[in-house]
Amino acid sequence: MLDGNEIIGLVSSGELSVLAEINNEYKNEFCKWASCKFPKTNKYDIADCWHDVILSFYDQVCSGKLLRIHFELKSYLFGAGHHILVKRLMKSRNITYCESLEESLIKGWYGTDSLTSYNDKIKCLSDSLQELPEKSQKLLTSRFLEGMSLKDIAYEANYRNLNSLSVTLSRSLKSLRIKVKQKAQSQVFEDQFEYS
Question: I need a labelling partner for 20 at 20 to 30 A (CA). Which of 60, 88, 126, 184 fits?
Fold first, then answer.
């Protein structure tokens, strides 16, 4: 399988056969993963979600909104699928999943793999979130932990357009990721120093 950025290049140049390759490579694994994470969701809804992920990926690339990714394509696609499923389940008020949203926020982020326990990861995320400005904390909490839509957040936070809210959320999430990575790395360093 090609690198995610190579795939983005191929899709943007009109090479759509690569989408079939992505589908063949990840669909079954996504469906198994989603079935474990969302056990009360039927397999048809999960398969439908996967197709929405592929369509969304295609739309994002073709519209120029997705030019590069800085992590594995699989992580990007599964994260998008997770987001779609959570959104759908929250709409129907039928949300039951095995991992908390807090863990899903940091799963797969570079630098957190070294934190071995779930509690270490959550503490790292919580501490990092508290270091952000209050506005960023509120936006990230509303979006990712409370599952609010962008429209609802924009109304509550007095944003006039969704694009500026989206940019602010993206910047806040990037800042959070950097802080989480720094904390995780410093924790590993402290642990190594402690044992030497």
Answer: 88
As a whole number of angstroms, the distance between CA 102 and CA 159 comes to 25
Question: What global pTM score does this model have?
Answer: 0.49
Task: Write out the two tokens for 75.
Answer: 């992580």
pLDDT tens digit sequence for 99-142: 444 444 555 554 455 555 556 666 777 788 888 999 998 888 77
Chain-centre distance for alpha carbon 30 = 14
pLDDT confidence bin for 92, thresholds 50/70/90: low
**For 96, which DSSP code?**
-
Q: Phi/psi of residue 94, each to 5°?
A: -120, 50
Output the CA–CA distances (angstroms, integers) from residue 4 to 14, 15, 23, 91, in the order listed. Answer: 16, 14, 13, 31
Instruction: Name the CATH code of domain 4-98 (choices 1.10.1740, 1.10.287, 3.40.1350, 3.40.50).
Output: 1.10.1740
| Cα angle for residues 29, 105, 190 (degrees, 5° grid) | 110
Determine the longest span between alpha carbons in the chain, in angstroms: 54
